[in-house]
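[Discussion] Sanity-checking designs against the backbone

I'm trying to build intuition for which residues belong where. Below is a C-alpha cell string of 159 positions. I'd appreciate it if someone posts a full sequence so I can compare it with mine line by line.
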C-alpha cells in the first residue's frame, strides 16, 4: 500500500511539474533517463551476481556462515565481505533483505551493511591520495569498529 501511495504521489507531482513548465519537466526526464542508462549495466551485473550467489548458497549455508547462531565469527565474515565489496546502496539493501530471508542474522547483516557503506578497502588508494595515509587508515579503522557498535545496537533492539 505504501508503495502505491509513493507511485501515485510521484506521478501526481510529475504531472504538476509538467503543467507548470513543460520544457523543464521534459529536460528533467531526459536527464533522469540518461542517469538510468548509466546505472543500468552496473545494476544488472550486480543483480546477476546476487542471483547466482543466492542460487549457489543455500539458506542453510547462509545461515551457517552469517546466521544468528554464527555469532562473532559470522559478524567478522560479514564485516570483511562488506569492507571489500563495492556495491551501491540501492542494491545493498535489497541484497540484505534477501540474505535475511535466507537465514542471515540481524547483527551480521547490520555489520555487513555498515562496513559496505562506510569502509572502503577497494577505494582506500584513492582516499590516501586525497586525504593522506593517516587520515584514510584512521577513518576506515574507526568506521570498521563503529560498524560492530551499530550491529550490537541492532542486536539489542531487534534481539
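Best answer:
Here's mine. Compare freely.
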Amino acid at each position: 500500500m505504501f508503495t502505491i501511495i509513493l507511485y501515485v504521489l510521484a506521478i501526481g507531482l510529475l504531472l504538476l511539474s509538467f503543467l507548470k513548465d513543460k520544457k523543464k519537466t521534459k529536460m528533467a526526464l531526459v536527464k533522469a533517463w540518461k542517469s538510468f542508462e548509466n546505472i543500468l549495466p552496473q545494476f544488472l551485473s550486480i543483480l546477476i551476481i546476487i542471483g547466482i550467489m543466492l542460487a549457489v548458497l543455500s539458506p542453510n549455508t547462509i545461515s551457517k556462515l552469517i546466521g544468528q547462531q554464527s555469532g562473532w565469527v559470522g559478524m567478522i565474515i560479514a564485516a570483511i565481505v562488506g569492507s571489500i565489496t563495492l556495491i551501491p546502496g540501492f542494491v545493498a539493501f535489497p541484497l540484505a533483505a534477501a540474505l535475511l530471508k535466507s537465514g542471515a542474522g540481524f547483527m551480521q547483516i547490520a555489520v555487513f551493511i555498515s562496513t559496505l557503506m562506510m569502509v572502503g578497502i577497494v577505494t582506500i588508494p584513492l582516499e590516501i591520495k586525497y586525504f593522506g595515509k593517516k587520515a584514510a587508515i584512521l577513518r576506515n579503522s574507526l568506521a570498521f569498529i563503529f560498524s560492530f557498535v551499530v550491529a550490537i545496537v541492532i542486536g539489542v533492539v531487534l534481539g
